[in-house]
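Hi L.,

As promised, Leucine-rich repeat flightless-interacting protein 2-like:
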Amino acid sequence: MASKSQLLRQAKSFELPDHENLGLSSYVLGRRQHQQFTERVQKEKEELEEEKWEEKKILEKKIKRLEGQVDRYKKDMNDVQSKNDDLIAENRKLDRELRYANDRLSELQMEMDKMKAHVTSLETSNRTLKTLAKK
């Protein structure tokens, strides 16, 4: 049978040396830190994804609002263009009426000049007749 000292030596040989125990504990500690690190990274990743999602929603709302503004501006532009076209047509109509009125005015002025000349000639004839009648 083995002596007590031999048994103690055998038991010590199964134990890990102090520096190997330190390695095992740092391995366990490292795994725990690694797990905490990966959990923290995962949490940060989820927070970033949440921020991106919120930012995406904000941008989608802005896009929708801006598209609404664009639609309103297009409608306003079409209304203004329509009014502008109507005003151009009205302006052309008024220009035609003005040309017609100016032409008519010229005709009436020529007719008035002819009438004045006729009246003058009648007055001259009338004076001549009066002077002849007095003699």
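The CA atoms of residues 97 and 103 lie 10 Å apart.

Thanks again for sending the construct details.

K.
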